[in-house]
Design a protein that fits this description.
By secondary structure, this protein is of the alpha/beta class. The chain has 17 helices and twelve strands. Helix 4 runs antiparallel to helix 5.
C-alpha cells in the first residue's frame, strides 16, 4: 500500500478533484490518503467528503486526518500541495486593496504582478518547513505542486529546496477544447493533434491539426479576427500570431497593454473583469457552505476530472507511460528561454518519474513575451532566498503591468506598504 499526503486539505473542492480522481482509478489498488491542514474544521470536511466518495464508488483508500504534519508526511510516496498561505482574508484582500490606492488594478493576482510576488513571498517560508519534513521522513516522495504562483514556487521547490517536484496546472488540458468551442468550429478536440509549450499561464498553442493532419491555424486566425469572445486572448493571437493557454482575465494582467488607468475604455472594450479573484473567493466560500450541507446528507458525487495527479500516480506505480504537461526547470528544453527558468512542457511519466521533453525554440515573439514574465519570476525567487527588500523591489520594478502604470518611486512605496500590511505572513526582510 502506498501513501498520498495532501497538504492544504482544507481546499475541499480541489481535494475532491485530485483525490476523488484517485479513488476512481482502480488500477492504483490499495492506498492511504493522509490529510493535513492548519484549519481542523475544513480538514474534517474534506475527510468526510472523501470517506463519502470512497464508500459510494467502492474505493480502496484508507483515509486519515493528521494534526501533525510530519506524521502526515511520514513514508509518503506522493505529496500534493494545495496550500494558500494567508487565505482570502487577510492576505488576498490586501494584495488587491493596497495596489488600488496607487491606481494599480488586478484581475486574479495569483501568478505575476504585485499579487503574484507577495503570494510567493509568504509561501516560500511554508515550503521551507515542508521541505525540512520531507527530507526527514519521505525524501523520495514525488511532490506535486498545485499552488500558485506556479512557476515561482516550483522553481524554489526544485532548485532551492532540492525536492523531487513538478508543478501541475489544468490550463493546458482546457486550451484546445475551449478554443474550438469559442470559435464554434464543430471539431471534436479528442480528434486533434496539438503541441503546447511556454511557461505556466502563458504557454502557447504552437500547432493544432485535425484528424487528417490539416493545419487548423489558418481557420482559427480567420475566425478569431471576427470574434468578440475571449477578447484578450484573441487580441494576443491577432497581434502575436498564436493562442495562449490561460484565460483572458489572467492574460490581461501579464502584459502592459490592457489594464491602463489612462485608457479606461480598454476595460470595456476587452471585457476585463477587474477584481475577479476576490469575487471567485466569495463564491467558493459560499460553495463550501453548500458542500457542507450535501456532506451531511451524503449527496456528494464525483466524475473523474482532467487533473494530472491520478494519471501520474498510475503511470509511475504501474509503469504505464502517459504524457502530461508539467512545470520543470528549463535546462535547454526551450532553447530561447533562460536555462534557469521554470517552463511548462510535455513530460513523459513512467516508473522512472517525470521526464521532460525537449522542444527547441519558441517563435521569437512568444519567447519575448515569456521573458518579461520570467524576469519577475526569477527575481521573486531570488528575493525569497536572500530575504532582501531590494530584491522584492526589483522584481516589482520589472513587472510589465506595474511598470506601465507606476513610477519607480510608486512601486517601491507600494511594496513597502504591502510588506508592512503582511507582517506576520512574510519572512523578515533585510
Amino acid at each position: 500500500m502506498f501513501k498520498i499526503t495532501f497538504l492544504g486539505a482544507g481546499s475541499t473542492v480541489f481535494a475532491k478533484n485530485v483525490l476523488g480522481d484517485c479513488i476512481l482509478t482502480p488500477e492504483l489498488g490499495d492506498f492511504e490518503i493522509a490529510l493535513f491542514d492548519i484549519d481542523p474544521e475544513r480538514q474534517e470536511d474534506s475527510r468526510r467528503m472523501l470517506e463519502s466518495l470512497n464508500k459510494k464508488y467502492g474505493g480502496r483508500a484508507v483515509i486519515r486526518a493528521f494534526s501533525d504534519r510530519r506524521e502526515a508526511l511520514r513514508e509518503a510516496s506522493f505529496v500534493v500541495n494545495a496550500v494558500q498561505v494567508g487565505g482570502y482574508r487577510p492576505c488576498t484582500v490586501t494584495d488587491f486593496e493596497i495596489p488600488k490606492k496607487y491606481g494599480l488594478r488586478q484581475t486574479i493576482g495569483d501568478t505575476l504582478g504585485i499579487g503574484g510576488i507577495f503570494r510567493a513571498l509568504r509561501t516560500f517560508p511554508v515550503l521551507d518547513e515542508f521541505a525540512e519534513d520531507i527530507h526527514a521522513v519521505c525524501p523520495r516522495a514525488l511532490f506535486l505542486n498545485y499552488t500558485n504562483p506556479m512557476a515561482m514556487l516550483t522553481k524554489y521547490l526544485i532548485d532551492h529546496l532540492q525536492l523531487n517536484a513538478v508543478g501541475l496546472c489544468h490550463s493546458v488540458q482546457g486550451c484546445v477544447p475551449h478554443l474550438l468551442e469559442e470559435l464554434d468550429l464543430g471539431i471534436d478536440p479528442a480528434s486533434c493533434r496539438w503541441e503546447i509549450a511556454g511557461i505556466n499561464h502563458q504557454a502557447w498553442l504552437l500547432r493544432l491539426e485535425d484528424d487528417k493532419g490539416r493545419d487548423l491555424y489558418p481557420l482559427i486566425r480567420e475566425r478569431a479576427a471576427g470574434s468578440d469572445r475571449d477578447r484578450v486572448r484573441f487580441e494576443i493571437l491577432r497581434r502575436f500570431g498564436f493562442y495562449n493557454t490561460e484565460s483572458s482575465e489572467h492574460t490581461a494582467e501579464y502584459s502592459p497593454y490592457f489594464i491602463k488607468k489612462n485608457y479606461p475604455e480598454l476595460i470595456d472594450r476587452f471585457e476585463i473583469p477587474l477584481d475577479e479573484y476576490p469575487r471567485r473567493c466569495e463564491a467558493q466560500i459560499a460553495g463550501w457552505e453548500e458542500m457542507r450541507e450535501k456532506l451531511a446528507e451524503e449527496e456528494i458525487v464525483h466524475q473523474k476530472s482532467h487533473e494530472f495527479a491520478a494519471f501520474i500516480l498510475s503511470a509511475a506505480l504501474n509503469d504505464r507511460p502517459c504524457r502530461i504537461h508539467g512545470n520543470v526547470i528549463n535546462r535547454g528544453l526551450i532553447s530561447n528561454l533562460p536555462e534557469e527558468a521554470c517552463v511548462e512542457v510535455p513530460c513523459l511519466v513512467d516508473r522512472n518519474g517525470v521526464q521532460p521533453c525537449r522542444g527547441g525554440a519558441l517563435p521569437e515573439q512568444l519567447a519575448a513575451l515569456n521573458r518579461t514574465n520570467i524576469n519577475v519570476q526569477l527575481l521573486t525567487v531570488r528575493a525569497g532566498i536572500t530575504r532582501k527588500r531590494e530584491d522584492v523591489y526589483m522584481a516589482a520594478y520589472l513587472d510589465p503591468h506595474a511598470a506601465a502604470e507606476l513610477s519607480l518611486d510608486e512601486i517601491k512605496a507600494l511594496c513597502d506598504e504591502l510588506i508592512e500590511a503582511h507582517k506576520g505572513w512574510l519572512p523578515e526582510l533585510r
